[in-house]
Amino acid sequence: xxPDLLDRKILAQLDIDSRQSSRDIARRVGSNKDTVNYxxxxxxxxxxxxxFTTHVDTARFGFSNIxxxxxxxxxxxxxxxxxxxxxSSLPEVGWVARSSGRWDALFCTWAPSSFAFYKTLSxxxxxxxxxxxxxxxxxxxxxxxxxxxxxxxxxxxxxAVKYGEEPGKSPISASDYSILRELxxxxxxxxxxxxxxxxLSPQKVFNRVSAMRxxxxxTKFGMDLDYGTLGIVFMKTFxxxxxxxxxxxxxICRFCGREPRVFxxxxxxxxxxxxxxxxxxxxxxxxxxxxxxxxxxxxFVKGYDSIVITKQSGLNYLPPRP
Length: 322
What we know:
The protein is of the alpha+beta class. It folds into four domains: 1-46, Arc Repressor Mutant, subunit A; 59-141, Lrp/AsnC effector binding domain/regulation of amino acid metabolism (RAM) domain (Alpha-Beta Plaits); 142-164 and 226-310, Lrp/AsnC effector binding domain/regulation of amino acid metabolism (RAM) domain (Alpha-Beta Plaits), CATH 3.30.70.920; 173-216, Orthogonal Bundle (Arc Repressor Mutant, subunit A). 39% of the residues lie in helices and 30% in strands. It contains eleven helices and eleven strands. The strands form two sheets. Strands 2-4-3-11-8-10-9-5 form an eight-stranded antiparallel β-barrel, surrounded by four helices. A hairpin with a 4-residue loop joins strand 9 (262-269) and strand 10. It is globular. The model has no long low-confidence stretch (mean pLDDT 94).
């Protein structure tokens, strides 16, 4: 399905804040509430929008995000299906993906400490080590989610949300966690329904959500798109830098944030220095982005590699409460 202009305007608003009311979206896109409600239902029914999510900066209550990239050996379809199903069942694993390119799979782990990550990884390796030829561990330091500028290329605007840095030491309260447990998988869930499920009053839910937004625990109410329906290729690019300083790194991040097809950027600790996530029509589109980046920063971009994310599973944006 190819969304028309009004659909894309609505999607752009949902991408910025998916908890907006239909009335507010209608005012911003030049339509009316009933039309917006109809269009949103159609976008869901046609599998353009696969879900609405609440983004949480887990570093605020003590969790780091660590990615492990895996290259398989001695596997078949049944063994790989077992691998992905097992990882998706682990509450401390937040994202599992199949990929093509150098890496066959990747998974993200929520970890309150290096030792906690080691325990999770050991549990996985105890079961699948003979099927893993190679692995790479990458620690997310900072990461940015950008608005999907490709939705309205004729009038792009950059909205960036930052996550990460040094994990905090303030535990999240039971009531806040119960609210997030309801809102993370469905950011458009009404506060009255959240209150009922969490055993709280709607006013308390409203107050606690406002407080979590102010503290930076809740960073954004967003949406997930179905790449297959839209004919989009989800690519991750790993960039190695040299001769880099803080000012130059900030310039590179700003450059990437303006690129229409870049929707996430991560500064990383590990085998490479930056990761870009791109939603492109063709693999060549991602190569074009990288060529522009290399031409803009010839003294700093050392090299890059890319993979295509072919399937995602085990999406869990909220770590288990310690």
